[in-house]
Amino acid sequence: MPYVTFDALALPGKHHDTMQTFETKITVTSDDIDNLNHVNNVRYVQWVEDVAKMHWFTKAPNSITDNYLWIMLSHHITYKKPAFLNDEITLKTYVPNSEGVTCTRVVEILNGDTLLAKSETTWCFMDSKRMRPTRITEDIKNIFL
Asked: Taking the model in full, what pTM does it have?
């Protein structure tokens, strides 16, 4: 049984008038709650990975996803406010930059207009057959930037 209910929606838009965004909504379930009666911090990290994967598989064609993947290199998350059982949370992600074989992905976790947490993650683009880093092409950049 999944730990969260997803309403997977690709909501194209612009962030800061320059970046395409991807959003999805989730509802906090009892499996997300810790002994302090709010969402466990580890769950936020899982949501960051989940929304990144959803964005990738929703926007990139099979010809790309079948041959390439992303590996997380570093991750920083700032927690601002807690989320609670049955809260409807928005996961919003965008890629503000990429260079060479890496990109930076930002995820904002919101309850309405209230920022609960924000992450910045560096990902490495990989050839899935050779398992080697691969330069991010303009085709890939155009999907996300």
From this structure: 0.85
Q: How many domains does the chain have?
A: 1
CATH code of the domain containing 110? 3.10.129.10
Helix/strand/coil for 33: strand
Determine how many CB atoms are found less than 10 A away from the CB of residue 78. 9
Summarised one tens digit per residue, pLDDT across range 41-62 is 999 999 999 999 999 999 999 9
Please give the Cα distance from 92 to 105 (Å, whole number). Answer: 10
How does DSSP classify residue 135?
P
Q: Which residues contact 102 (CB under 8 A, 6 or more apart)?
A: 73, 122, 123, 124, 125, 136
Residue 74, both tokens: 């570093």
Give me 81's structure tokens.
């406010």
E strands along the chain, which residues?
A: 5-7, 14-15, 19-27, 68-79, 88-99, 102-111, 114-127, 132-133
The most distant pair of C-alpha atoms in the chain lies apart, rounded to whole Å, by 46
Domain enclosing residue 38, as ranges = 5-144
Tokens describing residue 15 = 């962030």
